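Ticket #4471: structure output looks truncated?

Reporter: J.K.
Steps to reproduce: submitted the chain below (634 residues) through the standard prediction queue, then opened the result file.
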Amino acid sequence: MEKLWNQASVWIGLAGGFLAKRERLLTAAKRAADYLIAGAVPEGAALERFPRTYENGGEYGRFVGEEDRIMLCYPALCGRAFVHLFEATKDGKYLDAARRIAGTYIKLQGEDGTWFLLQNAVTGKEYAPNRLLPTDVLEFFEELHRVDGNDVYRRTADKVFAYIEKGPMSDWNWEGQFEDTRPSSVRWKNLTKHPACATAVYLLKRFPDDAVRLAQAEELVRFAEDQFVEWTAPYVGREETGDADDGSWDHFCLPHSRWMTPCALEQYYCYWPIDASAARLINTYLELWRTTRKHAYLAKARALGAAATRMQEPDGWINTWWIKGVERNDDRYHTWINCMLETALALSNLAKADKEEKTKTVICWGDSITEGMSMKAEDAYPSRLQGLLGEDYKVLNSGDGGENVVTIPARQGALPLKTAAAIAFAAGESKVQIGDGEDNGFRTDDGCRIKLTKPLGRDIPVNPVRIGDGSYRVLLDDFKWNTPGHPISYRLCIERADASAAKEIPAGTPVVFASSSAVKEAYCEVFLMGANGGWDNDIGKLIAGHRRMIARRGADRPYLVVVPYWGGITERQVADFKAAFGDHAVDFRAAAVACGLDPVSLMLRNRPDCHLNAAGYDFLAQQVHERGRALGYW
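Returned output as attached by the reporter:
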């Protein structure tokens, strides 16, 4: 039973990567989930609705007659699996099962934010004074809040994280809590890297673009690597197996000749190389690589992944214990199917990362010129640029018509935003209006308004929007172009998923668009903006707006800037703009003249305009491509 919770979740993950076997994998996941739900603690018990940890005394028979003994990290792992299964199948019974588990956790949560590690399912009596290190519960509530949207789950998760931050993030007592290991009675005696790695990943996802949280995540991974990763075989003594007096296996008891490295060790009480421990480090290194793009993290993930492939047998089998000479039928070294599945999922994740590294993302930021006004999507210049670059590149169109030099940087994350006024939801109210086409209800730090337009980001959507600690969606209701007296009109609303209680968001609350995280994956950014104003015809302001966006990733990273070419731009302004960006500037008008073309012939309806016709988009894409090639970008 204690291994089944993980199999359901991993089968779901593998189903996403192995589409040919998707139905078989989902069938296996549903059978595992249905079995866990059917065997859950009955209603009315202290730990009602929790799936059980043990069946038939547990794997080693250590807990015969203690089937009511629940280790409180495992119901959360079941809950996460149920959430993922709901997303894969859309069967509401699995989401309901996850909600029931969450309800019991909320009922039992202590004032300190966590729970007892081990409790009796019927009476609730604790078996040991140890408090749960609740990283699995934190991940569960994060996932449930993402799918369900109920703010109760967010508040519960925040209390859990407060416990972790005050506890192990401060005193480094990352206690190993495994179903086959007795709780440690001495602090720091049995450490492990699993909860430290889980917390690092949480920090990266929960606090994007936060330098302090990133530094904390990297420090946690340094701890995990220092204590639990062996890159080369250590020179140690003779092999001794069996339990010591404290319930642990002797440390460093594996002879030098039998180490399979690199590898990751499980916990101090089992200081041996385990495949799932390597899988944990692979996934953690990959999250750090995706966040920082530091190649060392990807290299470390690959090294552990290569070790996993060396351990794999011709039929696909991977031993749990990465020890040379271990046979499948060796009773001393059980093979845990959940660990093998975790390794398969980590290798799948690594394969995706290899593809991500080889496929370079180019983001084109802009307004309706980039969006491709009056053109089919395939005729806009980003699509034409994709054709020129080929399959080794992924070009994203992030152009929204009508946006100015303030709004585009705000979508990209270069300009921090906040709410202009307090926002109040009444109980039962899921959507409220906070602005209109003239005043969106959001402000930059210096008080500037932004003007969002449809399609709200195209390939890089602004939704979901984080306002404070809550997740919302921005809606542009009654949207109309070219209304009398105004180019755009709409009602800007924000929508929440959980409308059960009244809620007020104070004025000045930070606002973060989902589109701001896209910069992390960008290899190169192309900027084209200014046709809709926002710079008061002051070329210095237009240059500053571009520089803010460039600085978001760093001026040492690949970028290109299209020189303004539309009517009203003076030769002096063009010269100043080109001087500011040097070789990174793409001068569309000058290139057309140099090719013997009348720039007007490349514009929509063959008349002076900022918008281009199909030939103009082709030409612009060619110029962006040639400038990038001259700079060695592709």
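Triage note (M.O.): checked the attachment and the full token line is present. The two ends are 52 Å apart (CA to CA).
Status: closed, working as intended.
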